[in-house]
Design brief:
The chain has 7 helices and no strands. By secondary structure, it is mostly helical. It has one domain. Helix 1 packs antiparallel against helix 2. The chain starts with a helix and ends with a helix.
């Protein structure tokens, strides 16, 4: 059964909310965690747009990243998204510091970029992303954005 346009837009709105939280927090771990969650939520919105439902089963984050890569025809989504997933796992199960401020900013910029790409694929009746989120990409330093432009 296909998703309603409002459902797809709702998934994407949740992703943008996570991006807003990530952008506004001073702790690198919080920025990273919310950037990763946002990337996965962007993937869920993209899959819903394609009529696919995501189920919470072992390995579903990898499947979401693979599908995003295929749909958007961008292999970097899987490569960088999977690196983020592994970093997230290091944080959960490891005892070392796991992400630097620079990495956190780069991953946030990457998640924002994927959110923007997906945003323009959603039908025209989608809710507008908050204006301050649209400015978020410009607010991140050129240094943080350059690897992803």
């Amino acid at each position: 059964m296909p998703f309603k346009k409002s459902q797809v837009a709702g998934y994407l709105k949740k992703a943008f909310r996570d991006l807003e939280i990530a952008r506004g927090d001073r702790f690198t771990e919080v920025r990273f965690t919310y950037a990763y969650q946002a990337l996965i939520k962007v993937g869920i919105a993209l899959l819903a747009r394609e009529g696919m439902k995501v189920r919470a089963v072992p390995g579903h984050h990898i499947r979401i990243l693979e599908a995003m890569s295929d749909i958007l025809k961008d292999g970097d989504i899987f490569a960088i998204g999977n690196a983020m997933r592994m970093k997230r796992n290091e944080d959960l199960y490891g005892s070392e510091e796991f992400v630097s401020e620079k990495e956190s900013d780069e991953y946030l910029a990457f998640s924002l970029k994927q959110g923007k790409k997906t945003y323009w694929l959603i039908p025209e009746d989608h809710p507008r992303a908050p204006r301050r989120l649209c400015r978020a990409v410009r607010c991140l330093t050129k240094r943080a954005l350059s690897p992803f432009l």
